[in-house]
């Protein structure tokens, strides 16, 4: 790769929302060279008209119902309501329709058994089916929770890798201010562009996992507006926002009625139907990050081989996160398992009134409803957390994770790379509290080492009772 790499400055969000994006001059890593890397015209995102919306059709969260039922819970919000009384995040709303059906069914069976003909089945069936149902629900729930935890681990890895890569870029990539002010400023702006690409990777990954494949969402457009991507080129055809979800679809999502819910992959299918190539936006962002790392190695601003290897390892870790999260979202529980578990569960619930009536009589109705709530509720929880990257209340708060990455990158870049003399030889450096650096600097090396030896204390890992200690001594003898 050439030692000269051109990275474009990120456009501001206000400019993107009101005016068409203008061509921004490139930030050249090598100020002595006037050439810039050629930009592909086939993948360049078209400039929208001034009155054109930036966001493609996506599910918005502006209505009251959406605000209440279609966002992951805020994990940092303190709630005083007891868990027993909480509705937000509960599976209870999704159980309303199934429980109404079960209540009607158990009422019919109870009335027939009470007034006409006793519909009674041996309780042995309850025992056999109960074991099978418990086994199936346990398998479904454990598999879903494993996927949930795995998704959280990948996002934790993304946060850690983003911190490491941002720190390595900011600290170890040199700024050539000693060469010329323009060269130092170009290096600084290039580093800021690379930090912005780290944030762009996280946001684009979030959008991809939610099947929102375009590049001009409100939180993503300012980060990738300077990049030539397939998603950017395909976004123009869908630049007008769809209307909010209808009341019927919002209620259907709240009650868990699958036939009323929107297809989350509809944008991808529509793009395929229109012949649009969406590409893989996080992978393309990673491609630009790799180009930046290659450029700073080539132009000598990252001379240390250890730091070069660490940055390449960080890029590999980001690619691992991308592949792992895609595996989680694209590999659900096999359909055969889901169908069999659902059929077995409903067979058990439907058979409950026949087995309970002989012992409970009219209490069969509430008993069946309670049993159905327990069994169907646990199964519904497994279905909800099976895909941990969506908009359900119990899904992972991906927006908060992306905001955390952005905030931490801002913290890293808020100060110049520190120099050891700025924080070591200072009066605020309390070595072996409470003496300052100056006080210890006035002492001899022998005095310092003697103090360190005096601070060292060791304790036995375990203490044995006297009887056991004496017995151990006898065994040794």
UniProtKB/TrEMBL annotation:
Q: Which topology term describes how it sits in the membrane?
A: Multi-pass membrane protein
Offer a single GO CC term for the protein: plasma membrane
Subcellular location as annotated: Cell membrane
**Domain of life of the organism in this record?**
Eukaryota
- Where is there biased composition of kind Polar residues? 1-21
Main location class: membrane
| Name the record gives this protein | Uncharacterized protein
**Which species does this protein come from?**
Letharia lupina
- Gene Ontology MF: a single term: chloride channel activity
**Keyword terms, alphabetized:** Cell membrane, Ion transport, Membrane, Transmembrane, Transmembrane helix, Transport
Instruction: Locate the transmembrane regions by residue number.
Output: 96-117, 123-143, 335-356, 362-381
User: Which regions are flagged for Low complexity bias?
Assistant: 31-46
InterPro entries given in the database record: YneE/VCCN1/2-like
């Amino acid at each position: 790769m050439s030692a000269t790499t051109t990275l474009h400055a990120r456009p501001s969000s206000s400019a993107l929302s009101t005016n068409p994006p203008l061509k921004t001059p490139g930030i050249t890593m090598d100020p002595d060279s006037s050439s810039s890397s050629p930009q592909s015209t086939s993948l360049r995102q078209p400039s929208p008209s001034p009155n054109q919306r930036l966001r493609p059709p996506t599910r918005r969260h502006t209505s009251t119902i959406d605000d209440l039922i279609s966002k992951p819970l805020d994990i940092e919000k303190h709630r005083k309501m007891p868990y027993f009384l909480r509705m937000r995040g509960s599976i209870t709303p999704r159980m309303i329709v199934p429980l109404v059906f079960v209540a009607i069914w158990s009422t019919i069976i109870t009335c027939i058994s009470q007034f006409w003909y006793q519909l009674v089945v041996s309780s042995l069936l309850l025992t056999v089916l109960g074991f099978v149902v418990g086994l199936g629900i346990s398998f479904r729930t454990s598999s879903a929770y494993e996927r949930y935890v795995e998704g959280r681990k990948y996002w934790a890895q993304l946060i850690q890798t983003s911190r490491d890569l941002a720190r390595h870029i900011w600290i170890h990539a040199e700024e050539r201010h000693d060469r010329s002010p323009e060269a130092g400023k170009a290096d600084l702006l290039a580093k800021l562009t690379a930090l912005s690409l780290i944030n762009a990777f996280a946001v684009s990954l979030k959008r991809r996992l939610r099947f929102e494949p375009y590049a001009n969402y409100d939180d993503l457009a300012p980060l990738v507006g300077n990049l030539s991507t397939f998603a950017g080129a395909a976004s123009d055809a869908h630049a007008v926002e769809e209307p909010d979800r209808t009341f019927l679809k919002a209620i259907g999502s709240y009650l868990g009625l699958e036939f009323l819910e929107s297809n989350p992959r509809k944008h991808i299918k529509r793009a395929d139907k229109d012949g649009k190539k969406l590409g893989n936006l996080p992978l393309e962002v990673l491609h630009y990050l790799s180009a930046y790392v290659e450029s700073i190695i080539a132009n000598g601003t990252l001379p240390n081989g250890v730091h070069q290897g660490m940055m390449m390892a960080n890029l590999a870790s980001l690619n691992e996160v991308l592949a792992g999260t895609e595996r989680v979202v694209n590999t659900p529980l096999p359909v055969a398992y889901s169908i069999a578990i659902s059929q077995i569960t409903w067979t058990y619930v439907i058979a409950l009134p026949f087995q309970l009536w002989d012992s409970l009589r009219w209490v069969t109705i509430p008993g069946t409803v309670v049993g159905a709530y327990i069994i169907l509720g646990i199964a519904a929880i497994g279905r909800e957390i099976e895909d941990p990257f969506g908009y359900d209340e119990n899904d992972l708060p991906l927006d908060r994770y992306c905001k955390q990455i952005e905030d931490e990158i801002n913290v890293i870049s808020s100060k110049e790379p520190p120099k050891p003399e700025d924080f070591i030889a200072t009066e605020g450096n309390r070595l072996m509290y409470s003496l300052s650096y100056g006080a210890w600097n006035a002492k001899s090396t022998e005095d310092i080492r003697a103090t360190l030896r005096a601070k060292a204390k060791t304790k036995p890992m375990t203490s044995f009772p006297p009887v056991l200690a004496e017995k151990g001594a006898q065994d040794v003898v």
